[in-house]
Design goal:
The complex is a heterodimer of chains A (286) and B (324).
Chain A: H1 2-30, H2 37-55, H3 59-80, H4 90-112, E1 127-130, E2 134-137, H5 138-160, H6 162-172, H7 174-179, H8 184-209, H9 217-231, H10 238-257, H11 262-276
Antiparallel strand pairs in A: 1-2
Helix pairs in contact in A: 1-5, 1-8, 1-9, 1-10, 2-3, 2-4, 2-8, 2-9, 3-8, 5-6, 5-8, 6-8, 9-10, 9-11, 10-11
Chain B: H1 2-26, H2 29-54, H3 63-78, H4 84-106, H5 111-131, E1 141-142, H6 150-177, H7 179-189, H8 191-196, H9 201-227, E2 229-230, H10 232-235, H11 238-251, H12 258-276, H13 281-295, H14 301-304, H15 312-322
Antiparallel strand pairs in B: 1-2
Helix pairs in contact in B: 1-6, 2-6, 2-9, 2-11, 2-12, 3-4, 3-9, 4-9, 6-7, 6-9, 7-9, 11-12, 12-13
């Protein structure tokens, strides 16, 4: 029983990790806390939902479409909006992101109504058992693996490609990066695009597992914060450690205190980690 | 220039005061209610301004003080049977004590980390109140009904809220002229330098946070009593925090009248939007937030007081200052 709870927590934690991956990248590179992150997750979820219900595209395939669409949206928003205020004080970008969130959420509400929807894949209920104790649904395992794969792709892009080098250079020293010929505005836009693309992927996976509605983003943004903070900023594997930690902590906490305390547990962990371990579990010291 | 600024400001203040006192005797219930609500946001934005604008700590959880203020009054009056005149100050004091307790650890964090921590505190409190028995959980709690005619109630809450606002502004003004104000601004500009010059930064920051909490708590008490019924998701709504920050920024942070101006203009704009676009008004509100942040990140106070001339070039200059 306890093992099953922990495994459920780990599987959900993989999804949390993917959600936080994009937020951590954007935060680490540009010092923007993307409050609209959850709204982008919601857009990713709806992308796959419409591909599935209108064209019958399997969500594990429309995953790539939703990454691409969200990448383009993210690129545009950073290039033509956030770049305009990026050097102002920190809460300016914070509130701008809030404005974007309000805008996207309500646009979705007007276009798609507040109805709760879900992608009902035919294989949604099938699962396998290990021994007689643990049951693992295929979709949850698939979502978990895809989250890990995308994290690895991110690691590859950041460490092995030219784009990754310019992103890292820009985050270390903006002026020096500009001096050696990095197009900062474009690099920022690409970074935001990548982060939002990852949010799109998380949205698709979320829509396979859980019901979706236009206002689902808020709590997911907050959970992404918690994951980023627990894992620590500035490392690629921070979000994975943070995601798994939060997933397991929530699963255990809801089991002991009841599910209504789930959010209380998350945010108490957030505040405690911030106070006692401000760099997170894996965070680098400055 | 400075002369002109002072005169304009004085004139502006004078007109506001006259309108403020005369308004409820010339208008209907709807207008009074609307202005009371706008005044509440003016209190919240001004209280946020103390910690966010003057001290430079961008609190993203200030709504927690509104919520605590509301619930202290609700629980004391409903469960404890105390009169409003006890519950009202208790709300302010309760929120201030909470600010001190939370501020001790949280105010050690800086920048984004402080913002996230305060947001986390607000969300955790919402989740806690949602589950506690004494607050009647997520079904919400009723407050005793007031023994006055509807019109008198509206006028009562109008003047109470106006009083809290005046108190907030006057106290902020007085403190700014004292050591506290200079200390806070020194912390905003360079905390380590302030510390090495002998400013007791911890004490100053906590005082600032507690003041912010106190006034928001008073507003929360009034809000709860006027509504007659509150729920955790309405008085701990993170959207209210956003609104107060947007108002403070739009009006001009770090100035006394800026948040008041921002609150009044944003409330009027959103009311008009609600009238014209019943379904999509929040959508337009989001668009306004985006435009206000991009084009007037320093607030409209500069323009009102005559320090800057309004025009396309002013708006574009703001972008030129901050873009990459």
């Amino acid at each position: 029983m306890l093992l099953q709870i922990i495994i459920n927590g780990i599987l959900k934690g993989g999804l949390y990790a993917l959600m936080a991956l994009g937020m951590s990248l954007i935060w680490g590179v540009m010092d923007i806390i993307n409050i609209a992150h959850g709204a982008f997750i919601m857009l990713g979820a709806y992308c796959s939902y419409w591909f599935f219900s209108l064209l019958g595209v399997d969500p594990f395939i429309s995953l790539f479409l939703s990454i691409f669409i969200l990448f383009v949206i993210g690129y545009g928003i950073q290039r033509y909006l956030i770049n305009l205020v990026i050097r102002a004080t920190i809460f300016i970008t914070l509130i701008l992101a809030f404005g974007i969130e309000i805008f996207i959420n309500n646009l979705a509400l007007v276009m798609w109504t507040a109805d709760v929807r879900k992608i009902q894949v035919p294989y949604g209920a099938s699962n396998f058992s290990i021994g007689n104790f643990v049951t693992i649904p295929y979709v949850r395992l698939g979502a978990f693996l895809i989250a890990l794969i995308i994290a690895c792709v991110f690691y590859f892009i950041l460490n092995k490609t030219r784009l990754g080098r310019s992103i890292r250079a820009t985050s270390q020293d903006l002026d020096a990066a500009r001096l050696v010929g990095v197009d900062v505005a474009k690099t920022y836009a690409l970074t935001f695009g990548l982060g939002v693309g990852a949010a799109g992927a998380a949205g698709t996976l979320w829509a396979i597992l859980f019901p979706i509605n236009p206002m689902m983003g808020g709590i997911l943004t907050l959970k992404s914060f918690v994951v980023v903070i627990i894992g620590g900023l500035g490392t690629m594997f921070g979000p994975i450690v943070g995601g798994l930690t939060l997933g397991v902590a929530e699963a255990l906490g809801s089991n002991w205190f009841g599910t209504t305390y789930e959010n209380f547990i998350s945010f108490t962990i957030l505040v405690l980690v911030l106070i006692f371990l401000p760099r997170g579990i894996l965070g680098k010291s400055e | 220039m400075a002369q002109k600024g002072t005169v304009t400001k004085g004139l502006f203040l004078g007109i506001l005061i006259i309108i403020g006192i005369a308004l409820p005797f010339f208008s209907g219930n709807f207008i009074i209610r609307f202005v009371t609500n706008a005044l509440m946001f003016a209190v919240l934005a001004s209280a946020w301004n103390i910690i966010g604008g003057y001290t430079g700590y961008a609190s993203f959880g200030n709504v927690v003080f509104l919520g605590i203020g509301a619930y202290v009054s609700a629980v004391l009056m409903e469960k404890g049977g105390v009169p409003f005149w006890v519950g009202f100050p208790a709300s302010g004091v309760g929120a201030a004590i909470f600010a001190i307790l939370i501020g001790l650890p949280v105010l050690r964090l800086k920048g984004h980390y402080f913002a996230i921590a305060t947001l986390g505190v607000a969300e955790a409190m919402k989740a806690l109140v949602d589950n506690l028995e004494i607050t009647e959980g997520n079904s919400g709690i009723y407050l005793p009904v007031m023994d006055l005619s509807v019109k008198s109630q509206y006028i009562f809450f109008y003047f109470m809220m106006l009083g809290v606002l005046v108190l907030t502004l006057v106290v902020t003004y007085i403190f700014l002229k004292k050591k506290l104000g200079y200390g806070l601004i020194a912390i905003r500009e360079d905390e380590e330098a302030a510390n090495s010059l002998g400013v007791n930064t911890t004490l100053f920051k906590i005082t600032s946070f507690a003041l912010s909490g106190f006034f928001s708590g008073l507003a929360g008490s009034l809000y709860a009593y006027q509504q007659g019924f509150i729920k955790p998701e309405s008085v701990f709504d993170v959207g209210v925090t956003v609104k107060m920050i947007v108002m403070a920024v739009f009006g001009g942070i770090g100035s006394i009248l800026g948040p008041l101006l921002g609150a009044l203009s944003i409330e009027i704009i959103s009311e008009i939007l609600t009238n014209y676009f019943l379904v999509a008004h929040t959508l337009f509100f989001g668009a306004i937030v985006i435009f206000a942040i991009v084009f007037t990140p320093k607030g409209i106070m500069d323009i009102i007081s005559g320090r800057k001339k309004f025009g396309i070039s002013y708006l574009l200059q703001n972008i030129r200052d901050h873009r990459v």
